[in-house]
Amino acid sequence: MCGIAGIVALGDAAAPQPDQLQAMCNSMLHRGPDEEGTDIRGEVALGMRRLSIIDLSGGSQPIFNEDKTILCVFNGEIYNYRELRCTLEKKGHTFATSSDTEVIVHGYEEYGDDFPSHLNGMFAIALHDTAKKRVVLVRDHLGIKPLYYASQGQHLVFGSEIKVLLASGLLQRELDVDSLGQFLSWEYVPAPNTLLKTVKKLEAGHLITIDLQKQKIAPRQYWDIPLKTERSLSDDEWLERVDSLLKTCVTRQLVSDVPLGAFLSGGVDSSLIAAAMGSAKTFSIGFDDPSYNELHWARTVAKHLGVSHTDEILNPDILDLFSRLLHFMDDPIADFSIFPTYLVSAVARKHVTVALSGDGGDELFGGYETYIAQIRAAQYGMIPAIMRKIVIEPMLQSIKPRAAKKGLINKAKRFVEGAGQPENLGHCRWRTFVGELQRAALFTPEAAKKLTSPVDAHISRLFAQAADRDPLTQCLYVDTKSYLCDNILTKVDRMSMAVSLETRVPYLDPELVELAFSLPARLKISGNTTKVLLKKVAARHIPSACVYRPKEGFSIPIKHWLTTTLRPLMEELLSEKTIREQGLFAWENIDTMKSEHLQGKENHSHQLWALMMFQAWQNRWLKG
After folding, report:
1. Would you call 91 exposed, middle or buried from its count of C-beta atoms within 10 A (0-12, 13-18, 19+)?
2. Has residue 554 got a pLDDT over 90?
3. Do 191 and 333 contact (CB within 8 A), yes or no?
């Protein structure tokens, strides 16, 4: 696990300088505290910071091929490197180290630009072919590891974080207002964009080739989730296939020369990972608020599995924590769970250097309530409009939100809010918190003119890409390519690397992803039951009470803290003076949201938090 950086000078652009590359590497010390590696050859500079996991003494980067004409820096892990190394050695390649990185340069020699298709792992790669005068940038199949790039003048800069690109001193910092509109709607900026006009994300399963002679930059997709082809298997056979392959994928990701553990919430996904590991160290956190504390379930699973379990009940100084985490929010997300993800990573890092996570299970096997809400919306629509608009919805609007995290009232209110969003959003209606009408009211008329992309732009594009699949699989495809990649995986990468912890996600092994997407829909959602098959798998390994319980989600009581601990911060970041001088937002609407939330009339925590996160990001990263 590392962080990578680089500069490519095209045409008459000034060659990269050592101090530029050094500044870029220095900006991501947290990603690789163990070692640094740099290389500048003419118009190409490559740099990295290393967190040593495999071949601790011999895996220093850059790594070269036999004649030193090809070199690469790399962030991530290649889980099939031993098998791939054996194949490449049989084809005549000679290896100088025992690291997984070296299969990249020899794989490129053997397979050319198709080499990423042979890799099983999580990776962001920068490869320099000095003989052919070209550079190749690659991001893994599912987007587990990040890679940003920007073209400014005749320089192309890239790195594992936006701050790395900014540290080069080659970029202008200009807000992309259209992307800001997307951020407030979805709590993340959909790829390939970011909040900075010049900076892009390399999308999952994509690579970029840079021809240094022709000065040509060519992106292309090398992998996508295959079109579902259901296999003629019985339910029991599906059960065996998923159980067996999940165990294989977890075992595949246990390769490590440093201590390794797992996050454990006590839910289906993380519990199955821990069960497949066998002897394991597991980690959990909880909070004082009982509706945000799942430690009972984690302890029950840990005891059942006989693993070495560590948990802590935390009462963090949230203001201090917010300030600290801004350093890692240069590509911001407004997901509340950045806080518990950071905190559980910090607990785990006291004991291990690598942690396995259960992320991806919901997107592969149908775990979100939004899928059921989409089904229920059709039934809700059969109720006469006069009954819905005059009786049901006004009644729910008149009821104040409850203090608990979820509950019947809160869920009913959220269902009606989502159902009121455009139908073309599908199940994503319940994931957006600022729709077209709200967005138009939130921005000033001048700023609203710059919102050129509709709220549903990336969702509609992904639904179109998945058009040949059944309705539920379309939803899973959309979530895997958007919410999972741009929000969940970004959050896990940022918050774990903030404490120099490598996080691995076995559910996102491409082999398991392909199997999951070939599962019949009835084995994912049935009635009000989510993850039908995966829960049957889990019931083989952990207590049924832990399997068949309401889904809670990994969050913290932000909605309460905005009225207490976080209120001074909210008042500072969303003050009338700040908002009016900024000229982006309509003060009156923000003031109304604040008042309604503070009085307990409505829960505007998602909208207010996204606004606060943007304001803090702007102060830290846009203004520098």
Report:
1. exposed
2. no
3. no
pLDDT computed for residue 562 by the predictor: 94
Give every CB contact of residue 582 below 8 A, 6+ residues apart in sequence: none
Give the CA angle between residues 191, 562, 398 to the nearest 5°. Answer: 95
What's the rounded mean pLDDT across residues 317-344?
Answer: 94
Given a contact cutoff of 8 angstroms between Cβ atoms, the answer to whether 220 and 206 are in contact is yes
Q: Structure tokens of 391?
A: 């009786």
Question: Chain-wide mean pLDDT for the chain?
Answer: 92
User: What is the per-residue pLDDT for 435?
Assistant: 92
- For the chain, give percent helix, strand, coil, nearest 5: 45, 15, 35
Mean predicted confidence (pLDDT) in 214-236: 88
Confidence of residue 551 (pLDDT cuts 50, 70, 90): confident
Q: What is the 3-state secondary structure (H, E, C) of 102-171?
A: HHHHHHHHHHHHHHHHHCCEEEEEEEEECCCCEEEEEECCCCCCCCEEEEECCEEEEECCHHHHHCCCCC
CA dihedral 574, 576, 577, 581 (to 10 degrees): 80
- pLDDT at position 35: 86
- What domains does the chain contain, in order, with CATH numbers? 2-175+194-221 (3.60.20.10), 235-366+482-547 (3.40.50.620), 557-624 (no CATH)
d(CA 605, CA 607): 6
* Chain-centre distance for alpha carbon 113: 26
Helix axes 369-380, 407-419, angle to 10 degrees: 70
Closest by alpha carbon to 170, among 183, 190, 181, 156? 156
Residues 6+ apart with CB under 8 A from 442: 184, 434, 585, 586, 589, 590
More confident residue, 395 or 353: 353
C-alpha distances out from residue 323 to 49, 430, 608, Å: 24, 30, 17
Q: What is the DSSP letter of 622?
A: I
Q: What is the pTM of this model?
A: 0.94
Q: pLDDT over 70 for what percent of the chain?
A: 94
Please report the pLDDT score of residue 405 as a whole number: 61
Amino acid 407: pLDDT: 67
What is the model's pLDDT at position 532?
97
User: How far is it, in rounded angstroms, from Cα 554 to Cα 566?
Assistant: 19
- pLDDT at res. 291: 62
Q: In the predicted model, what is the mean pLDDT of residues 187-216?
A: 97
Cβ–Cβ under 8 Å, residues 282 and 272: no
Torsion of CA 391, 393, 397, 399, to 10 degrees: 60
**Closest to 418 measured CA to CA, from 428, 410, 407:** 428
Q: Tell me which residue has tokens 């979805």.
A: 186
- In this structure, what DSSP letter does residue 202 have? P
Segment holding 46, helix H or strand E: strand 44-50
Give which of 348, 336, 172, 195 is closest to 258, Cα–Cα. 348
